[in-house]
Amino acid sequence: MRAKNLLAILIAVVCVSNLAFGQIIANPEDSADQEIEVHVNPAIAVIATGALVPQAVATGRFDVTAYFTVEANTEAVNMYVMASNLYKGDSAASIYQIPVVGAGAKVAVGLSMHGTGNVGNEVGGAGDNFLEWDGQGLGTDNLNGMDALTTVTGLFESGDNGTFSHPVNVTVTYDQEDYELPVGWYSGWIRLVAVAQPDIVTGGGGTAGR
């Protein structure tokens, strides 16, 4: 009985070996395909390109517009704005300042840099392309050493399909209300923060990171 079992095992081994060997020698050329895939992560770049500032001011309110470009490989981005007071002599220690005022910052998304003629707009929040200050007092936030205000975050979507590539103009209001403010140059900062949001296409819920 043991001999029969051993013989059966040996025959099976020989058959398997012949099958494998036969597959190798029967095909002088062979191939196989292995699928591979990689995931492209969200990427974004924000570049400051200049500003429109009054050459001189006396008293009263005036607007300053800072120019940026935002390029992302996603169709939507979350954006918020920070703006500091204007300090005499570019010194954050100076007591002479022109404060940022108003309800918030206007954000205008211009024509697509892909040449499609499309613009972009705020699609989350109020949807009015205006980002309100987040309600915290001036001095709570700091921008390059200067007291600053920060807006709420707004979700903006491009009119293009799949990417966001636009100039973005940010307008902030200041008020020079001190009739005895010393003459000279007053300077500060406006910052635009943008975070790519791919989930607007896939249906997920992205966050701004703030």
Task: Based on the model shown, name its key terms.
mainly beta, 14% helix, disordered C terminus
Q: What does this protein structure show overall?
A:
It contains two helices and 14 strands. Strands 3, 7, 9, 10, 11 and 14 form a six-stranded antiparallel β-sheet that branches. The chain has a five-stranded antiparallel β-sheet with strand order 1-2-12-6-8, with no helix packed on it. Strands 5-4-13 form a three-stranded antiparallel β-sheet, with no helix packed on it. It is elongated. The protein starts with a helix and ends in an 8-residue tail after the last helix. With about 210 residues, it is mostly beta strands. The C terminus is likely disordered. Strand 9 and strand 10 form a beta hairpin.
Oligomer: single chain
* Ends apart, CA distance between termini: 78 Å
| Total count of helical runs of at least 4 residues | 2
The helical percent reads: 10-25%
Structural class: mainly beta
Large-scale geometry = elongated
Unreliable residue runs: 9-22, 201-210
What composes the largest sheet? 6 strands, antiparallel
Taken as a percent bin, the fraction of beta residues is 35-45%
Mean pLDDT: 85
Helix-strand pattern, N to C? Answer: HEEEEEEEEEEEEEEH
The count of β-strands is 14
The Cα radius of gyration reads 31 Å
Secondary-structure map with pairings?
Layout: H1 2-26, E1 44-52, E2 60-72, E3 76-84, E4 86-88, E5 97-98, E6 100-109, E7 120-122, E8 130-132, E9 141-143, E10 146-150, E11 154-158, E12 164-176, E13 186-187, E14 190-196, H2 199-202
Antiparallel strand pairs: 1-2, 2-12, 3-10, 3-11, 3-14, 4-5, 4-13, 6-8, 6-12, 7-11, 9-10
